[in-house]
Design a protein that fits this description.
The complex is a heterotrimer of chains A (about 130), B (about 80) and C (about 100). Chain B has about 80 residues and is of the alpha+beta class. Chain B is built from one helix and two strands. Chain C has four helices and five strands, in the order βαβαβαβαβ. Chain C is globular, with a radius of gyration of 12 Å. Classes of the chains: A alpha/beta (about 130), B alpha+beta (about 80), C alpha/beta (about 100).
Chain lengths: ~130, ~80, ~100
């Protein structure tokens, strides 16, 4: 079965990103497909590589990056939500004249159309948020 | 192209459930952005306003003094709410 | 249809709205702070017992454990599942609704 995953909250403040991660991992372990993980609202904050939690805590951003690397997941950060919240990839940094970018490994920034598209292509769209 | 998703000729039913009041949080505004982008995909779309979501439909919203974006202008008015 | 509820019933009305609108025989999974609704001996217990008559109600075990809630105190008729069970519950019906 093909899943689409939506993460609407940032890491650490809310459990949504944790639950989405555990669900995705369990789905992949069961042999299902995760077509895309779409990060929206404050969920875009999952995608900054500047995240530095205390060493005894889980690293939510790295955990997503690693899952993406292992399973070829498509981690998409919404461009409109990302621009509001200062999540920037090299292309966006250039386009907007910013002095740096902060997108984490395995994440990419793209449009809301990517959310609609996965909603159409997936068998189930799972929304995790507040 | 960012919004260049293909629907592959599939039409699905999308129901957007709005349960949040406007302005206190961004969910109503960014939720509306999804609906507007989604319109281009020619899907079977409906919006439902439940619980505090009905406050999104209140007429006479004026965000000038609060200096926030009045995002609900330009949508069909539900009438005298 | 699978409904998920992630809010404590003592803070938000997500669970009430879900119960009001869910068709009879739905699957309802309590996750995150929603798991507090699964506990027996509370002001929510009677309502949840009625919910188990109309629906298949589940609670996410890892979220119970994280909060120090005892599985033995979970209302009879509410089944405890793990993340793998969550996936199975999402696969079974055609649609999923998250009551946030």
């Amino acid at each position: 079965m093909k899943f689409g995953i939506v993460v609407n909250e940032g890491p650490y403040t809310h459990e949504a990103s944790d639950t989405a991660y555990q669900f995705s991992k369990a789905a992949l372990e069961k042999g299902h497909e995760v077509l895309r993980v779409f990060f929206y609202h404050d969920g875009v904050n999952n995608g900054t590589r500047l995240t530095t939690p205390p060493q005894d805590d889980r690293h939510i951003t790295n955990r997503w990056s690693e899952l993406a690397e292992q399973h070829g997941l498509d981690l998409v950060v919404c461009i409109a939500a990302a621009q509001r919240r200062g999540i920037v990839d090299p292309d966006e940094a250039k386009r907007q004249g910013k002095d740096a970018n902060n997108i984490a490994s395995g994440f990419r920034i793209s449009g809301l159309g990517q959310l609609i598209e996965v909603g159409i292509q997936a068998d189930r769209l799972m929304v995790f948020g507040d | 192209m960012e919004e260049g998703g293909s629907s592959g000729g599939v039409t699905k039913k999308f129901m957007y459930i709005n349960r949040r009041a406007p302005y206190g949080t961004i969910y109503a505004l960014e939720g509306l952005e999804v609906v507007l982008i989604g319109a281009a995909f020619e899907q079977d779309v409906s919006m439902v306003f439940l619980d505090d979501g009905v406050f999104q439909l209140k007429k006479g919203q004026n965000t000038e003094e609060a200096e926030m974006k009045n995002f609900f202008t330009g949508l069909p008015s539900p009438g005298d709410v | 249809m699978l409904h998920t509820v992630n809010k404590s019933p003592y803070e938000k009305n997500s669970l009430d709205t879900c119960l009001r609108l869910a068709k009879q025989g739905s699957a309802i999974l309590l996750i995150e702070d929603g798991v507090y609704a699964a506990m027996g001996g509370t002001s929510e217990t009677d309502k949840m017992k009625r919910a188990t008559d109309a629906h298949n109600v589940y609670v996410l075990g890892p979220d119970l454990k994280a909060r120090g809630l005892d599985e033995a105190q979970v209302i009879d008729g509410i089944k405890v599942v793990g993340y793998d069970g969550f996936v199975d519950l999402a696969v079974e019906p055609n649609t999923v609704q998250s009551w946030l």
